[in-house]
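S1.2 Input.
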Amino acid sequence: MTQAVSNFSTRMMNVHCRLDALFSQHQRALLDRDLVRAGIWLDSYCEQLAVHMEDEEHFVIPLYQQLGGDGTDAPAKLFLGEHAKLREFMARIGAVTAALATQPDDRELLKLFDLEANYKNLLLHHDLRERNALYPRLLTRSSREQGTALAAALRSC
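S1.3 Output.
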């Protein structure tokens, strides 16, 4: 394992922690029924999530595939498919949050929390797959040069 690849893995997990903190701020604002602030936190979260997923799609997953993945194409397709689902959730969550900002409704707010619980469940499983499969596989298979190039290419870290 190279130091550059190990550093990459740590940096990527730190991105996940920062994203979780932003989403928590969004949800705290929802609890306070401060829907404008909730929207601002959500916008920031979505922007940073998009950059992170683009980093993975353009640099991490292609390197994973180049290094042989797990011998099949299934994990790469799984990660990309989950990214698409995460984007769909974010679009729906953003639309509901914006609608609530113009017309607050406790029933719709509760539905939003349910939607966000489903989102967070998908995100948790996605995160675990990255933490336990994708990143460790890169750690064990990447050369020093590949790790350095990967770490340098990432915008979300």
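S1.4 Remarks. The helical segments are 3-31, 35-66, 74-102, 106-141, 144-153.
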